[in-house]
Each structure stands twice: as structure tokens, then as C-alpha cells.
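call fold(seq) -> C-alpha cells
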Amino acid sequence: MCTGVLVGTMGDTVERSRTDDGQFRGSIPPERALEVFEEREDRARPLTASDIAEALDCSRRTAHNKLGELVDRGELETRKVGARSRVWWRPLPREPESAGRPRAEGVSDAVSEAVSEANLPGAGPQLEARREALLAAFDYLQDNPGATKSDFLQDVYPDHRADFESAEGWWNAIQPALGDLPGVDPPKERGHIWHFLGG
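ret:
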């Protein structure tokens, strides 16, 4: 049986056995990809799938799959940079938010309260992720008054999936709650333009 040596980002080595045709045996757990983020000196710098693939000695596709699992679990966050690139990072721990306190700089008490009371499915971290997605949709509408459903699905949904299985499921949950937020003027008919009136 052949063996290979994997050198981690901190110089540690892990032996992995290979099959007769040179492929590594077994799969890499997502936690190993997470360790790459913790083991580096500059923990604030986002990583690419290529960085993870190199550190784990695996294919870029495998790295993408592990990173996707970690995003779904809320362990990592991701965003597109440029037309075809994406980076991942460990989110900072959030302090518990007291009632009535704005959730983010520039968010009014009324919006913060409406988001926290929005009728969204889920509980615990999943519900919090969905509130964050609702707030991201609200922020997007503030910056893009006159947005359509396809704008939200193209520009907000990819970075704020909030554990929904599809873009359509995401929209079906987010759009009624978005229409209830202060200053939002939802379209009278489906498929038309959303407006932000301020407030």
C-alpha cells in the first residue's frame, strides 16, 4: 500500500494512504477544511478554494464541496469577488442583541424590531440566518429602489441563502416579510417593481 504525506499550514504532517493507482483513500471531513482557517497566521484574510485545495492536497471541486458544507452549517461565510471568483472566511462571533437595539449601523429601531418579529420559518441559528437574509434584502432595496424579484434572487440570495433549498423557497419566505418592513412599498402584482419610500 502506498502512503502520502499531507503537510498542513502549520507544518504538521498527516499520513494518508493511497490506492494502487495513487488516489488518496477515504474522504476529508469538512472539519479539516475548517482547521485550515484556524491554523494560519493571518486569520482575518479570506481564503479561496485553491488555498484550501492546496492545504488539504485535494481537488478544487472537493475543496468547494467542503466549503459549501461549512457555509450551510453556518461555520463559514462566502461572497463573490469579481466575475468568477469566490472567497470564504470565519465569521466573527456576534454579541447577543438586546431588544430594540439596531441590528446594524444605520438600521432604525423600527426596522430592527420589524425584522426580529418577522414571520419567518425556522428556529435558533437558522432563524437568525433568515433574519439576516431579510435585513440584507432590505439593505439591497434601500440601495436599489425599484428592484425586481430577479434582482433580489441574483444579487442577495447567493450570499444569504439562509438554509433554504432553492431560490424560489427563499423568495417565498423573504418577500412577504420584506413587504411588511417600514418604508417598503411592495408591488401590487407579482413580478413587478419593489420600491423603497424611506422611513
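Residues 1-14, 96-104 have pLDDT under 50 and may be disordered.
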